[in-house]
Request: fold
Amino acid sequence: MARLKALDAVWANESVRRRGLAACRAWIEEQTMLPHLAKLARLLKPEMSRRQFWSVLVPVERAVARVKVTDVDILDADLPEDAATGDPMPVSVVADSVRSAFNVGGIFRTAECFGVRELVLCGYTPLPDQPQVAKAALGAERLVPWRYVEEVRCAIAELKAAGTACYALETVEGAAEVAAFPWTFPCVLVLGNERFGLDPEVVSLCDGTARIPLFGRKNSLNVAAAFAVAAYEIRKHVQVGR
Reply:
């Protein structure tokens, strides 16, 4: 909405108006949470009058009001496509049989925010072509390279054969705390199922296991939240090494 209102404020400037209309049209078409507005996006043409523009602005404003404000604000606050971003990390992520599409979308968003270079989805992890994943990812599924490998053991074997260290994120005895873990790069972080975590055999295939220390009665975090904590700590280690 901020983009549309800003455009309305500079409507008299023809060159700015034309560029703004094109940008607003692209923005509306990308909103996975508001797919029914795609028809309105097609009405945003360079030759339209201001009154015609208002006929698009009003229903968009109504639709946005029905969606979580926080999500819409995040969408509208994204950096432009040509804006500079941080350097990518020499880190990939393997997600094995993550059940929730919402969690997968969250993993994509976190991966994009911290500069993960690739997501490898395994088992029955839902793929980004599922609407629920795209809805939660808020476009990040188009920014982070990903691929599907059916068997997680094959994915780990392939990555290790390429000289990449594989580390499990799991709450197991003897695992080092994620902040003090001796990360080496390039590396892969392996995430498991929300309820069952990683199979012990899969953990044994990894080169090490990191854990997030917890202080409540619950023994684990949501997988998307746990990944966010780990990604933040790994990013700090990457920056120290540069």
User: Anything to note?
Assistant: Residues 2-76 form one domain. The chain is about 45% helix and 15% strand. The chain has two domains: 2-76, 91-241.
